[in-house]
Structure formats: structure tokens, C-alpha cells
From TrEMBL:
Residues 239-266 form a coiled coil. Gene3D superfamilies: P-loop containing nucleotide triphosphate hydrolases. SUPFAM superfamilies: P-loop containing nucleoside triphosphate hydrolases. Belongs to the SMC family. SbcC subfamily. This is Nuclease SbcCD subunit C. It comes from Mycolicibacterium brumae.
């Protein structure tokens, strides 16, 4: 994926596509460009108040490119499953790192800490069931201090030498999850925001993190969500935002046209039922656009123009709306509560605290600049470290009190504004010429009184409630009288004439927006066509790499992957993955197993994360093999090897299958193991061979004087058996891999060798039923070791240091092929 399709300005590419199309008018190009730049510029351009926008350059570099970094270490304390401060040291260069650990060991806490430090959230927390994770983010055993520190080794470029950058997250004591302070710092420079590294957009388009939950969620959240995720990864979120602005404008402008068209349909239906000759004439005038509105009004009103207009006015009065009493009670109640809450705060005390906070802040700045020294105000105290600690705490408390008071003041301001403007939208009712209505004057008086707020703020809640009651009573009387007067004036033609006049008003309003609506529709159509072209252009290299990765990971899958496309708009947008099963074409997503869908998700999203345009020289995958069978793991390792040539690939795994596959094929990799001890103390160490770990476990068991001999004699044979089988597994799978044997055949042969002796025979003799008696007797430590693993210790075997050494020697013989 080169920069031509991914790294340049999306607006510039869209402009170029539209400008090169002779069928697209310049004003359409300008409107699309404005929509991509923001709501304000779009509104100005649509309203005709903006100058011709300047055409963006295809390649615009206003600032140095973002720093490119490898992961160097992840240090965590008090976060998720990690209690005391623990550091995960990583090889900060290209290659493979696998961090293994059983479920609950704390390994995924490192991945979540990295994600939170980079993005400020976590996919798992944002999911439907994320409340549980958000509530339990602080470690139960050692939650203080809670912090995250991520060190990156920055890759040098043409203008900058390699250096170290750090992203940190620090929580205040007892602070909530999102109360943390996020910061970044390049070595030798001052602390800044995380955004200073220039990674914000890249975290959307080249996200270097993916967990098992995300892999599953890729297809579980629905087609529209998958479409949007791919669109973001393709860097087309600007286009999506512009399309949203155009669609909103289309909906808003189209509202008047829709109302007018619907009213016309209803009108023509009613005209068909009318017997007046004018109805047939109006029906002809409304048969096709453009409608002659002047002719329609002249035909409709004729000699009864004044009467029809009068009736229409009375009907509008009869439909008069005023604020409801329940709403008035709500507004008044909120104003009372706001007044009481504000009065309960000590305004003078808060002002004093604010002034004191300002003084403390200035003193802290002075101390930061000048260091320890006498107080410049009282000239008796000393500004030192102890004073600074106390002053910072007093400042925090003062600022909290000030913020609380400001919130109360803002609430009071909003409540007062709501009360003062409560009757502002009530329409004034004017006198209808020729009609005397007794209820009009009381209504006008009630409305004027309602809009006249009393000077005292405390009196305004009661005023709102009383005025609303009086206004409702006056409005009800006015509506009743206007309806009765309209009924008395109505004749057979008047209802039809009123409907015609109402439609003419709607049509007139719609025509004012039609020109803008046509512009928006043309712009939306052109933007979507350009987006489809860009989408196809940017998706093509991703499809090629996805197909390549799928071929590596599809071991034993009979599903072939073809083209991937994003289709549809609005609520019908979806992703199409062409495929074939045993040569028969079909939609791939409908026939894939869960493990195949996980593998496809990896194949689709890894290309975007590893494009040359990404500043992240690392890729972190949390538990990607959880749903994979052994064959898929072998294919996944092929992908890791290829990725490791250009990226630092970090994989968190809950079991030892991936490290075992790496050892079997002698793939260079950093293998780490995470364990969780008492009190959430997490330990990171080199991932020893499984057989060696079992030997160490057996040694710890046998030499522990506090463990009963009966327990040792029951538990030790199992550890002996696991050590011997792990050694045999490592050698057998490694030799078979070097010989080029298919992984599934190797795995099947291993599974068929049910006992420890048969697994050893398969390894040393080449067949599960092979004779290993000579091999066992060739060295004295082999026979007793296998005897313990097979029959236990009831036949006289002694569990001591000699037995442990025999086990260690036997494991060594098997692994070494002796």
C-alpha cells in the first residue's frame, strides 16, 4: 500500500476526481469541498456567502511526519490484574515476541494498559458488557498507585535521530477510570499531551492493536459496523463526515418539499369529491409542474377571497398552542431548586478560595522556576518541597470548590433563562378584520402578563406557574370562540378553498429551498461516486494482502477468498467477501467457522496496521489463536514470520501452542512467560521449555519438606509424565517440521499415541508401537524415570534428588535425540 492511495489528502483526491469529470459543475465541486471542511464552511457555501474555496494540493506536508516507534517496555501498577509495579521488557526491533500466560496471569492487563495509554479507552470496555470491566479496572490487592508507562524506541528518519519517547497515564488516589492524566514525553524534551506525538489519526487508520474480542466483534457487530470499520481503516472517515453533512442538509431542505408534495396529493383527492366547478379547474392547474400558483389562487378565492381568508385566520387561531401546565411546573421547579442550591453555597467564601487558589498557583509557578527560598509575600515562611506538597493539595481543594460553585451558577443561569423565555414562542394573535371576538383582549392581556417577569428572582417560579394557568384558560376561551366563528362563516366551498390556500403556502415555502436542495442532491451523488472510486482504489492493495495472508492461514480450510468490496449506502451498507467452497462460488462469510472468521479478520486488518504509512513499527495481537486449531496456528506462524521482517510483532497467548510451534520450527523469537503470584504480584521471565518447567515443578514438589509424602507420591508421577511427553512433543514436532511433513498428519499421529511410552516410542523409534526397551536400558536413568511416570511410586521407587536428576537427564536425552 503506497502513499499515493493512502497517505495524501482525501479532500485533494476527491477534488481531483470531481474536477476531472466534465459532467460535474464547479459549484458542485465547491460544495463537496466545503462539506469535507466542516459544518460552518459548508453552510456558508450552500447559502452563497462564501468565496470560491482554494483547491487543496495533492500532497501537503505542513509538519514533520509523526515519530515512528517500536515498543520498548510496558510498566504497570495498580491496573487490572497487575498489583505492584511490573515491567514487561520487549526487544524494540523487528521480529516476533510471544508473551504466554494462563488465563488470569495478568498478561492481557499489559495489552489493555497499552491500549488505554494510546487511545484513552479499551475495545472491551466499550463493548455491550463493558460496564463490568470499567468498574473493575483498579487492582483489588494493590490499587495504589495506579499508573501506566509505555516506552518507545523511536526509529530515526532523515531529519531526526532515534530517541526514546514515553506515554504515561497517572491516576489520582481513589480517582475514577477516566480521571487519569495522560501525557507523553520525548527524551530531553518537556512533557506534552499524547497528541503531540502525532498519532491520533494513525490510531484510527492504522490501529496496531487487536484483541480476541475485537476479532470476534469484527463480524458480530453487523454489516454496517464492519463497513464503517473498514471505511475508517481506509482513511475515508472525512468522506463519511461530509456525506453526513450533505444528508442532514438534504433532509432539512427536503422537509418543506415533502410536506408540499404530500399536501398536494391530499388536495387532489379532496378536489375529486367536490362538486364546485372551480375544483376541476384547480385540479387541472395542479396536474403537472411547474404549478401556476397565481392562477390557482385566483381561481380558488374568486369573489369570496375575504371570507376564505377570514376563515383561514380563524382556523389558525382555533389551533393556537400555549405551554402546558406540566411543563410550567417543571421549569418553575427547576428554577426554585437552582435558586436554593445557589443560595446554599457561600459566595464570598468561594471568591476567597478562588483568590487564594490564584495566589497559590502563582507561588507554585515561582517555586517551579526559582526553586526553594523565602516566601515573597510574608518573607517569613519558606517555599520548599514540603510547602509545595501541601500547597498543591490546598490548590486542588480550592479548585474543586470553585468548580462546584461555577456549576451551581451555571445551573441557575440556565433555569432562569428557561423561565424568562418560557412564553417567548407563544404566537401573538392579531385582530381578524370584520370579526369581533370577546376572548381576544383577555388572551392578549394574559400573554403580556406572562411575558412580564417580576423583578425579584425568587418570585419568578410562582409567576411562571400562575401565568401558565391564566394563559391556558384565556387560550381555551379564545380557541373555542374562534372555532365557533369559523364554523358560522364556513360554506360548502370554504373547506376546499382553505385546503388549497394552505397547500399554496407550503408550495411557496418549498420553492424557496428547491434550488439549494438540488445542489445538495447533486453534491451528494458526486461525493458518493468519488468515494466509491477512492474506496476501490484504497481497498485493492488491502484485498491482495488479505488474500495472501488468508492463503497462509487457511490450512485445511476449503474456503477460498476472492474480492472484498464495500457496497450500499445509509442503512443498507454492507461488506461483500466473495468466496468459493470446493470451487463453488458463494459468500465467504456465510460458510466460515468461528476459527475461520477470526483468521479472516486478522487477514483483513493486519494489512492496514502494517502499511508503510503507519508510524507504528509494532503490531500487538492479544490471544489471536484462541479459536484456532493446530493447522491454523501453523499458518498463523507463517504470517508472523513474514510480518516480523518489517515489524515488531507482539503476540499475547493464553497457552503454549504458539511457542511450541516456534520452537518446533526453530523460528527466532523472544519468548516470555507471565505468572501471577499472591497479592496480584505479576512476574515476567523468559519462557523456558515446557519440559524444563515441569522438571522444575517436580523438583519443587519433591524437595518441599512441608508437603506430605503421600501427596508427593501421588502428584510427582503426573509431573514426570508431563515433562517426558513435553520433551517428546518438542523433538517429534520439530523433526517432522524440518522434514516438511504436513502439520495435521503430525498432530494426528501424536494424538493416536495415547500413553507416555507410546509417545516416547513415536519420537525415538518413529512409530508408537516401536520397541524402546533397548533405548530405556541404554542409560541407567531412563528406565526408572519412565517407570515413575507410568506406574507411580508404589513399586519401590524413591522420590529424591537422584530421581529428579534422572528425570532431567531423561528429558535431555529425548530433546537432544540421544
Amino acid at each position: 500500500m503506497d502513499g499515493a492511495g493512502l497517505g495524501g489528502s482525501v479532500e485533494a483526491e476527491v477534488w481531483e476526481l470531481l474536477a476531472d469529470n466534465e459532467l460535474v459543475a464547479e459549484e458542485t465541486v465547491y460544495l463537496v469541498a466545503a462539506a469535507m471542511r466542516g459544518g460552518g464552511e459548508f453552510a456558508d457555501q450552500l447559502g452563497g456567502d462564501a468565496p470560491v474555496p482554494e483547491r487543496p494540493k495533492v500532497e501537503t506536508i505542513d509538519a514533520p511526519p509523526p515519530l515512528r516507534g517500536f515498543l520498548r517496555s510496558i510498566t504497570v501498577s495498580g491496573f487490572r490484574g497487575i498489583g505492584g509495579r511490573t515491567t514487561l521488557e520487549l526487544n524494540p526491533y523487528r521480529g516476533i515476541t510471544v508473551i504466554s500466560g494462563r488465563n488470569g496471569s495478568g498478561k492481557s492487563s499489559f495489552a489493555e494498559a497499552l491500549e488505554f495509554a494510546l487511545t484513552g479507552t479499551s475495545y472491551r470496555w466499550e463493548a455491550k458488557k463493558g460496564q463490568h470491566w470499567q468498574a473493575s479496572w483498579r487492582n483489588l490487592h494493590a490499587g495504589e498507585p495506579a499508573s501506566i508507562k509505555i516506552d518507545f524506541a523511536m526509529e530515526p528518519d532523515d531529519n531526526r535521530t532515534g530517541t526514546v519517547a514515553t506515554i504515561g497515564v497517572d491516576w489520582p488516589p481513589d480517582g475514577k477510570l477516566y480521571a487519569a492524566e495522560h501525557w507523553s514525553q520525548v527524551k530531553g524534551q518537556k512533557r506534552e499531551s499524547v497528541a503531540a506525538l502525532g498519532w491520533d489519526q494513525a490510531l484510527k487508520t492504522h490501529r496496531p492493536l487487536m484483541s480476541y474480542d475485537e476479532l470476534g466483534g469484527v463480524f458480530e457487530e453487523g454489516q454496517a459496523a464492519l463497513y464503517d470499520a473498514l471505511d475508517t481503516l481506509l482513511g475515508l472517515d472525512e468522506v463519511a463526515a461530509a456525506e453526513g453533512r450533505l444528508k442532514d442538509a438534504e433532509k432539512q431542505l427536503g422537509g418543506a418539499r415533502k410536506s408540499a408534495n404530500e399536501a398536494r396529493t391530499r388536495l387532489r383527492n379532496s378536489l375529486s369529491e367536490a362538486t364546485d366547478t372551480r375544483a376541476e379547474q384547480v385540479k387541472k392547474l395542479t396536474a403537472r409542474v411547474p404549478y401556476d400558483l397565481d392562477a390557482i389562487k385566483a381561481t380558488t378565492l374568486g369573489t369570496v377571497t375575504d371570507q376564505a381568508a377570514t376563515i383561514a385566520k380563524l382556523r389558525r387561531i382555533a389551533a393556537l398552542e400555549v405551554p402546558q401546565l406540566a411543563k410550567a411546573s417543571e421549569v418553575a421547579g427547576e428554577l426554585r431548586a437552582a435558586i436554593d442550591a445557589h443560595a446554599a453555597g457561600d459566595d464570598s467564601a468561594v471568591k476567597a478560595l478562588t483568590a487564594r487558589a490564584g495566589l497559590l498557583r502563582d507561588a507554585l509557578h515561582l517555586h517551579a522556576d526559582a526553586g526553594d527560598g523565602p516566601c515573597p509575600v510574608c518573607e517569613t515562611g519558606t517555599l520548599d518541597g514540603a510547602w509545595r506538597t501541601a500547597a498543591e493539595e490546598r490548590l486542588r481543594m480550592a479548585e474543586a470548590s470553585t468548580a462546584e460553585h461555577q456549576a451551581l451558577a451555571l445551573r441557575l443561569k440556565k433555569a432562569r433563562s428557561a423561565a424568562d423565555n418560557f412564553f417567548g414562542e407563544v404566537a401573538d394573535v392579531v385582530v381578524v378584520e370584520g370579526v369581533d371576538m370577546a376572548a381576544l383582549a383577555p388572551f392578549a392581556a394574559a400573554l403580556k402578563s406572562a411575558r412580564t417577569a417580576p423583578p425579584a428572582l425568587a418570585d419568578r417560579p410562582g409567576h411562571v406557574e400562575l401565568a401558565a394557568m391564566e394563559l391556558n384558560e384565556a387560550a381555551a376561551a379564545l380557541r373555542k370562540e374562534a372555532g365557533e366563528r369559523a364554523d358560522s362563516l364556513e360554506d360548502a366551498w370554504a373547506p376546499v378553498a382553505g385546503a388549497i390556500v394552505a397547500w399554496v403556502e407550503l408550495e411557496t415555502a418549498a420553492r424557496e429551498d428547491d434550488a439549494s436542495l438540488d445542489k445538495v442532491k447533486r453534491a451528494l451523488k458526486c461525493l458518493r461516486e468519488a468515494a466509491d472510486t477512492l474506496r476501490e482504489r484504497r481497498l485493492a492493495p488491502m484485498v491482495d494482502q488479505t488474500s495472501e495472508f488468508w492463503q497462509r492461514m487457511r490450512h485445511e480450510s476449503n474456503v477460498d477468498i476472492g474480492n472484498i468490496s464495500l457496497e450500499g449506502v445509509a442503512n443498507r451498507r454492507h461488506v461483500v467477501v466473495d468466496g468459493a467452497v470446493d470451487g463453488v462460488s458463494t459468500g465467504a462469510l456465510t460458510v466460515m467457522s468461528q476459527g475461520e472468521l477470526h483468521a479472516l479478520a486478522l487477514a483483513m486488518f493486519i494489512p492496514r496496521a502494517t502499511t508503510p504509512a503507519s508510524p507504528f513499527r509494532f503490531l500487538v495481537l492479544d490471544d489471536p489463536i484462541q479459536a484456532m486449531d493446530p493447522a491454523k496456528i501453523a499458518g498463523f506462524l507463517d504470517v508472523l514470520v513474514e510480518l516480523g521482517k518489517t515489524r515488531q510483532v507482539i503476540v499475547f497467548s493464553h497457552d503454549d501452542r504458539l511457542p511450541a510451534a516456534i520452537r518446533a520450527r526453530s523460528v527466532p523469537a523472544q519468548l516470555l512467560d507471565v505468572t501471577r503470584e499472591q497479592g496480584s504480584q505479576v512476574v515476567v521471565k523468559a519462557n523456558d521449555l515446557p519440559a524444563d518447567r515441569y522438571v522444575a515443578d517436580a523438583e519443587a514438589l519433591i524437595l518441599d519438606d512441608d508437603i506430605d509424602d503421600l501427596i508427593k507420591r501421588k502428584a510427582a508421577p503426573g509431573l514426570f509424565r508431563m515433562a517426558i511427553e513435553a520433551a517428546a512433543h518438542q523433538r517429534y514436532f520439530g523433526e517432522r517440521a524440518k522434514a516438511g511433513a504436513p502439520h495435521h498428519e503430525t498432530d494426528a499421529a501424536w494424538e493416536q499415541a495415547k500413553t507416555t511410552q507410546r509417545k516416547v516410542a513415536l519420537t525415538v523409534a518413529g512409530a508408537a508401537d516401536g520397541d524402546v526397551s533397548g533405548w530405556k536400558s541404554y542409560r541407567p536413568h531412563r528406565f526408572p524415570t519412565l517407570a515413575i511416570s507410568a506406574s507411580g511410586t508404589h513399586r519401590g521407587a524413591t522420590l529424591d534428588r537422584r530421581a529428579i536428576q534422572d528425570l532431567r537427564d531423561t528429558v535431555r536425552d529425548i530433546v537432544a535425540g540421544q
